[in-house]
Amino acid sequence: MDLSWSHQPLTRRRTLAAATGLAAGALLPPGPALATAAQYTNPVVWQDFADIDIIRVGDTYYASASTMHYSPGAPVLRSYDLVNWEIAGHSVPVLDFGAKYDLNGARGYVRGIWASSLAYRPSNRTFYWLGQIDFARTYLYTATAVEGPWNRLTTISTPYYDAGLLVDTDDTLYVAYGNTTISVAQLSPDGRNQVRTQEVFRTPSGVGTLEGARFYKIGGQYYIFLTRPANGQYILKSSSGPFGPYTMRQVLLDLRGPIPGGGVPHQGGLVRTQSGAWYYMAFVDAYPGGRMPALAPVTWTADGWPVVQLVNGAWGTTYPSPAVPTPPRQVTPMTGVDTFDGTTLKPGWEWNHNPDNTKWSVGNGLTLRTATVTHDLYWARNTLTHRIQGPTSTATVQLDHSAMRDGDRAGLALLRDSSAWIGLKRDGGATRVVMVTGLTMDSNWNTTGTGTETASAPVSGGRIWLRANADIRPGAPRPGTFSYSTDGITFTRLGPAFSMGNDWRFFMGYRFALFNHATQALGGAVRVTRFEVSTP
Q1: Which long-range contacts (CB under 8 A, 24 or more apart) does 179-185 make?
Q2: Among the listed residues 373, 350, 370, the one whose alpha carbon sits nearest the alpha carbon of residue 360
Q3: Residue 349 bridge partners (DSSP)
Q4: Which of 82, 211, 400, 502 is 20 to 30 Å apart from 18, CA to CA?
Q5: What span, in angstroms and rounded, lies between the C-alpha atoms of 532 and 534?
Q6: Residues 45, 82: contact at Cβ < 8 Å?
Q7: What is the pLDDT along the chain (536 residues), one digit of tens a residue?
Q8: Which DSSP string corresponds to 51-69?
Q9: Whole-number Å distance between alpha carbons of 56 and 63
Q10: Within a 10 A sphere around the Cβ of 151, how many other Cβ atoms?
């Protein structure tokens, strides 16, 4: 449907409802012809996008996700059919929350962008992103298009933990948040300040922990959608306004998920299609790859409670595809080739912590100049990461290493709290291709191992192809393997298989990572002329 404000004969209430896709009872005008494919398969995105908040604006769906210490943060995904998604931008352009996010005297691993919220306010045609940082304060960013530019609107002293932002039908902004004790805050009309906050629900001890709030107004009722990590989903409902009182109902618990060996789908959001159908997008714990978005239809009971539609008692591996208007275009694939043309990085890339922007550039390839002198990859700035496509995928990098200097280390890693890499070591004027394992962190994210070289071979010339294959299906053996080529055609395996870790506590899944750091002195550089992620 056309949502251009100058041509819509809708009332303010109906426009709000149509734009958000959340206020039930809205009468939608006829839209374009509906196009449906036979089925879709879960996970709808086999990449690491967790703590999803999902909205619809007109005929377009958007979702936001957690990124912890990666920068830029809070990616915004875009879809026209709820099944095929692309990365459109990031709501948090830089993690300017302290020196630790610059790897400057401290590190921000497993900090930063946790579960946050994405909303759209039709009254000013503006997107809002809201999230707390370091349990200290809440930040609110806005943009008129998800591609950006995103700008910080305000900082609020109350840390809204795992927040859900609601734009009510009267344009008031509310936030639901908390862990076990759930509260609701009202913001000022401009969104810059907290007007009121109040506890609205205390989780019964028999349920345990509830968090991950998403806040909705549907059919005149207020709902707070909450997760029981990591195996359940509950919902609170109020007929008396946003501040309650609320009653609780279980949505799912210990439900078998669509990824073999993976966890229970939970924590995500509800969204309504243009034709009035409802869907729940959750994530599935599926380490070592991370937390993968899965989609299921939702119906409602006569007394106003959501029910997830199951297949043989489980979250379906397949469902009929949503009936939506014909998409205006195909979305940009999350795999494929990047030659780093143009003047900016494509939105599929995120740095490990904030980069030193004086030490990298794009255009005719990606140039990474050494930014840190260290023997520890976890301390090295300007490590550029890309999500791994499941269930298995391969990253291939064409690398010009002719400008490396003695002591430099450059290559392609499988990066997490236990890491391995293939790449180049230049020492004493000679260059070798090596495979390194044993890069490890402890549970406080301090480095416990900087790596051990397990295989090597001499190389000559200034160009090499590096390849990492990652099998991120949950369960053993979760292998990562490495190989190299001097002609881009024939690849030689290097080193043993690396078993990727599957502990959940790092939260983020493994990523492909491009790096170049010094161990002696700055001044060296490498140029990545081609990066490709391919699937079997």
Answers
A1: 179/209, 179/210, 179/211, 180/209, 180/210, 180/211, 182/210, 182/213, 182/224, 182/226, 182/236, 182/246, 184/215, 184/224, 184/242, 184/243, 184/244, 185/158, 185/160
A2: 370
A3: 386
A4: 211
A5: 6
A6: no
A7: 222 222 222 222 222 233 333 333 222 333 344 444 499 999 999 999 999 999 999 999 999 999 999 999 999 999 999 999 999 999 999 999 999 999 999 999 999 999 999 999 999 999 999 999 999 999 999 999 999 999 999 999 999 999 999 999 999 999 999 999 999 999 999 999 999 999 999 999 999 999 999 999 999 999 999 999 999 999 999 999 999 999 999 999 999 999 999 999 999 999 999 999 999 999 999 999 999 999 999 999 999 999 999 999 999 999 999 999 999 999 999 999 999 999 999 999 999 999 999 999 999 999 999 999 999 999 999 999 999 999 999 999 999 999 999 999 999 999 999 999 999 999 999 999 999 999 999 999 999 999 999 999 999 999 999 999 999 999 989 999 999 999 999 999 999 999 999 999 999 999 999 999 999 999 999 999 999 999 99
A8: S-EEEEETTEEEEE---BT
A9: 9
A10: 9
* Alpha-carbon span 86 to 80, nearest angstrom: 10
CA distance 287 to 138: 29
Strand partners, 432: 425, 458
Q: Is residue 44 within 8 Å of 294, Cβ to Cβ? A: yes
One-letter amino acid for residue 344 of the chain: T
Buried b (16+ CB within 10 A) or exposed e, 2-41: ebeeeeeebeeebbbbbbbbbbbebebeebeeeeeeeebe
What are the structure tokens assigned to 156, written together?
Answer: 């609020």
Neighbours of 206 (CB within 10 A): 5
- In the structure encoding, which two tokens stand for residue 177, read together? 């948040």
| pTM of this structure | 0.93
Q: For strand 266-272 and strand 247-253, is the pairing parallel, antiparallel, or unpaired?
A: unpaired
Residue type, 452: T
Around Cβ 477, how many Cβ atoms within 10 Å? 11
User: Cα angle vertex 62, ends 326, 143, to 5°?
Assistant: 120
User: Which tokens hold the place of 535?
Assistant: 């699937």
